[in-house]
Amino acid sequence: MNFDDLDIEGLTDEWLSHDFMSLPHDSDSLWNDFSVLPPYETNHVIHREPMSPLRTSHALSTSHHQGEQGPSLHSDCDVGPVSQDASDTRIRMVSPLNDVSNVDHIPYAWNPSSAVTAHEPFVEVHDDDALFSSHVPSHDISQSTYDRICRNYQVRTHGNQQHRSHDLPALGVFNLFLGLFFTRFHPQAPYLHLGTLDTNRDLRSHILSIMAAIGAVYSGKKGSRRFAVHMFEESRRQFQTTIEVDNTLMRDPTTIYSGFLICFTGIWCGNKRAFELAEALRGQIVTYIRKLGAPSSRSDTTAGGASNDQWRQWIHDESLKRLQWLIYQLDAQFPTLLHISPMMSLTEILDWSCPCDDEFWSASSARHWKSLLGPASIPPSKSFSAAIAAFMYPGLGGLPVLRLNCWSAYLLITAIHVQIFAYSEVRQARNMYSEEYELELPADTEWRRKLLAALHLWHDNYHIDTMRPGSVADAYFSAASRNLYEVAAFLLHVSISDLQDIIGKSGKQHIQRAKSRMRIWSTEQSEERAEFLELVVRGFQRYTEHGFPSSATGPSGSPDWTPSSPVAFFLFSLFFYAMSLEGPEERRNSFRESIAQRPQSDRSSIAYDVLKCGFEARADDGSGRAGGADVDHIAAEPARLFLRYGASRLIEFGGWGCSIGLALLLHWRSKI
């Protein structure tokens, strides 16, 4: 297949055209969530005319957002966006979400001295919307609870300017968003016991607000992402104020859970300011969960007392256990997000018990719960130290691989991933000042071998093809486990820091060194390396073919893709770009031949075309490196396909806005 046979422009540039409005998430007018940037030299408050709502029913105007201005943040290397051509305004897009920036090419960059962006989007939910017909009202709030939320809705300030908070959506729309939270997000974070929950009595205003924000994200409506950013800010302020007023809430589990939801939203919503605030909030809620202490393990719950009391006491203890694991999961996401260590260590969690099976947690009454228990006093729960022993301590011999539910299997791969990150940090520190990968010390080689064996053992016992999900929560954790397994394997084999440096993260002085390491890495051939490449190819193909659904369910009826799914696809795209750019022609030929030999079902996919064209033969001076500036440019063009195509797919992710920033990063690099 000739490189020209693939319509690259059709695959890449159109995502920045006005056809952007037709993409999945904000299906009516997604383009309106991004607008066109002013010139770089703008260093004052940006004023834009409010967007006119297409319809008036339930149109919600959200608040102003913080933006960032001027050149106060910049890259150390000459890898910024190309100068704007007056004939092409499509590439001047606003930072996600509504943060005006000239540093879109720098991930997570935000200027705290930024000005206010005067822009008023709308969330539109019409009375005849299909979401209302599928709404489950079991957790609706009353008018009095809604009035309380409105009273607590704060007036926001920024510098010397003051802005009145816009009205909340009508009660019906607010309840719709709450319903979407419980049906589409809560299975990912099942702390609340839905059978006994009274939303009017048990939940404070700030947790109801952040629940509505998350539900809005899953609605897929125009402006919903920006509404989530706005509600994140309101909920975060109320959360902090409430704790300052009443310090006992630092030990209140539901308050800590609301902090988890606020932090999660800030991390994945796509807004840079929200991300930085959420990053700081992470330390706060980790501290709170540590101080809360371990839940009691009551083995004598059947000794006296009514069965309803026993059931409710067990719910209390189990919910504390689940809250601990949710905070650990959130903390463990930072190695993937920012390539930094988590705050919580493996030794902290070894004595914890795994979450119980979903059938016990989902029991709607004490009688149903007791019938599931049989003669047991409480549902069985395995020690996490016993679950992880066979993976972390294979030298002890004879340790069994326990049968785990889907959530526990996810916690297990999370812990393995954190250990792999620790290994990668040691590897990176050793090679920091070297142009080549140094030989590993014997202890490091053994460490790596054990981690690889742990990955293989986990895959053989708990991979999504092995597990049989029995609920929506099980299906989510199975899909999330596969995603994290791929990221963990990627981290074990490839230096993410080098991939970041190849696209200029650390400045010019690090680019060539990172490229040199990638050249050396790409020449190594082994069975293990071939197995890893197959994993990345299959992952790349799966994300390409299935896309990123914005609906309630993903491929094959599984839950919505995990928020970290775009991170995995971003890494795969960046990896193929680096391999195509720096790998010697002989290695590219070998990889191209292996692609051509894939099954017919694979060869009919878009991923097949992208992989084949991205490794197309190019001019070479015989040494494996292109010669001369012109030839360098020609050699880089096939590799850029991975950046451009990766950007086009990431922008289609339906749901959380984090993928937009990753898409912009790949887009800017493809223009260099």
From TrEMBL:
Which residue intervals are annotated with compositional bias (Polar residues) in the record?
A: 54-64
Instruction: Write down what this protein is called.
Output: Polyadenylation factor subunit 2
List the molecular function annotations (GO) for this entry: DNA binding; zinc ion binding
Instruction: Establish whether keyword Lipid metabolism is in the entry.
Output: no
Give the highest taxon in the source lineage: Eukaryota
Q: Which InterPro entries match?
A: XnlR_reg_dom
In terms of Pfam families, this protein maps to:
Fungal_trans
Taxonomic path: Eukaryota, Fungi, Dikarya, Ascomycota, Pezizomycotina
Q: Which UniProt keywords apply?
A: Metal-binding, Nucleus, Transcription, Transcription regulation, Zinc
Residue ranges the record marks as coiled coil: none
GO terms in the biological process aspect are:
DNA-templated transcription
Keyword Transmembrane helix listed: no
Q: Where is the Xylanolytic transcriptional activator regulatory domain?
A: 178-460
Q: Where is this region: Disordered?
A: 54-84
